[in-house]
User: What shape does this take?
Amino acid sequence: MTKVNDVAPDNAIEIINVSKVYKNPTNRKQLKYNSSAKALQNITLSVKKGEIFGIVGESGAGKSTLLNLCIGLERPTSGEINMFGNEITAMHKKQLLKLRRNIGFVAQGESLLNNLSVVQNVSMPLKIKGDSDLSYVQEVIDFVGLTDRLHHYPATLSGGQRQRVAIARALASNPKIILFDEPTSALDSSTRDDILRLISEARKQFDMTCVIVSHEIDAVKAVCDRAALIEKGQMLEVVSVNPLQTDKSMPYLDQVRKYLSE
Amino acid sequence: MIETLIQTLQENWPALAKAFYETGFMVFFAILAAIFLGLPLGILVFFTRADGLAPNRFMWVLADGFVTVIRSFPFLLFVVFLIPLTRAVMGTSFGLAGGTFPLLFVAVAIYARLTEQILLEINPKILHTATAMGATRLQIATRFVLSEARPGLVYALTSATITLISYSTILGVVGAGGLGDFALRYGYQQYNFVLMYFAVIITVASVLVIQFVGHKLSAKLDKR
Assistant: This one.
């Protein structure tokens, strides 16, 4: 049975003291572990409903692991994660499947099905849910500005257009929250700005919460309300994002801290 | 010269047509086995790998072991080895039915391995996204894996069919007939080389047609 905790009612996600340790078996038969990697250590943070929350850190900091934990793709070694009041760390497989069907997810890089058209890709979450009413699909494709590309295949689209399709697909199941894993990492600066604008508009139009994992400070600064800084699996702090310039000569995380908060 | 050729073909036409039908019969049922048993078996091997979407060492050892053993078994010996089972299942170990049965096993094993290899080429991010969307394993297999791998699977089926035609040529040893058997018995053993080469030409032409159709279909399905 999923526990409904005493979480603040305005929180979409609550991560309480979460750690994730990967153990590397050296002897399969004896299952002895002589090494382990601490991907995340005692992370505690909350994401408010309706906000765009950034998770910032360098490669290997544990950002994507945190995202995977939030949708139950991985289980934490310790700690608790609540999403809209439901403790997902206590959910069993079927409950997790149901949960994931109501969460939008935009993966890093290319994740579209190449042999399916735009409309077929976007309607995939609804087909998974067993929802036969595909009328909403047209609405989200219109929203991302690909009305004239309905029957095109991903290979015929630009990188920015493909990312728009991925966002439309995440919106198709009308989720309360969308998780973005490095949504702008492979895009040029102009396309990146378009995508970030789209994310911002999506939050307003569809009244959603967004979590963006990124190593790109500019991207987080452009759209996020708050951001958590993560380094080597540990959370340094959560900062409110305000517009100010950065000093590129500073160490990465100092840049981030200064750039985002001051 | 040409008159002799035409006359030889006319005299042996019924036997040649029968041999063509026998090869077609054996390969047709082998292809059906490849599609309906080999494809799911290949998907099972792919899913149950240690780094797969549903790791299961027991299932993987069983499925992968079956594929490996059948594929590494010399086919002629496999046909003989399988005789007791062929007799038990088909009621005979001889003739067209007795020859088709071992070919089904080989078809399943060949196509399962080709399927697994093609699925390993799928971008892992697609499968990660499918899991994040809340797709069940069956939905991942049918809606994501098969959709993404479709052109490669058609291409692989073409290669498997050509391999099966080649395998079928030795099934004369259990009286299954076919073009290979015809070329040997009517051609080589009776010193009628015209017939032997003609059977070879028909086989090669069949392979070329299958290859052409398979490649066209695969290209049509491939939208990358």
